Amino acid sequence: MMDALALLEDFANGRLRRERVFRDHEDEWLISRFRFPRAMLLDLCAELGPTLQRTTRRNRAIPVPTQVLSVLGFLATGSYQRELADR
User: Fold this and answer.
1) CA-to-CA distance for 46 and 12, rounded, in angstroms?
2) What does the alpha-carbon distance between residue 76 and residue 62 come to, in Å, rounded to a whole number?
3) How far is 46 from 23, CA to CA, in rounded Å?
4) Region 62-78: what's the mean pLDDT?
5) Assessment of whether the complete model's pTM goes beyond 0.85
6) Are 87 and 74 in contact (CB under 8 A)?
7) Is the Cβ–Cβ distance between 64 and 52 less than 8 Å?
8) Can you tell me the distance from the alpha carbon of 8 to that of 14, in angstroms, rounded to the nearest whole number?
9) What whole-number distance in Å separates Cα of residue 28 and Cα of residue 18?
10) Contact (Cβ atoms closer than 8 angstroms) between residue 11 and residue 49
């Protein structure tokens, strides 16, 4: 118990430094556009993949990440124009 109090006192007096945290700028961009971090977006794509993945007779179906990010971008901003410009 005394060790914990001594540690808190050292931290309060500035004798201990906090560990530096480096932010990933790409994650900041994803959060600003879609309101979710990268890990959450990947989980969403994995979870929704079986439902959204379609077979088609054409060249290619729309990929699941494109479908998910398009919808989330619209829900986050309320506009398709910004989303289309990004794509």
Assistant:
1) 43
2) 21
3) 24
4) 87
5) no
6) no
7) yes
8) 10
9) 22
10) no
How far is residue 38's CA from residue 31's CA, in Å, rounded to a whole number?
Answer: 8
Record the tokens describing residue 70, joined without a space.
């398009």
Residue carrying the six token digits 């929704």: 48
pLDDT in tens, 13-68: 766 566 666 666 778 888 888 888 889 999 999 999 999 988 887 788 889 998 99
Distance, in Å, from the CA atom of 61 to the CA atom of 9, rounded to the nearest integer, reads 60
Q: Do the beta carbons of residue 76 and residue 33 sit within 8 Å? A: yes
d(CA 29, CA 31): 5
The backbone torsions φ and ψ at residue 74, rounded to the nearest 5 degrees and listed phi first, read: -65, -45
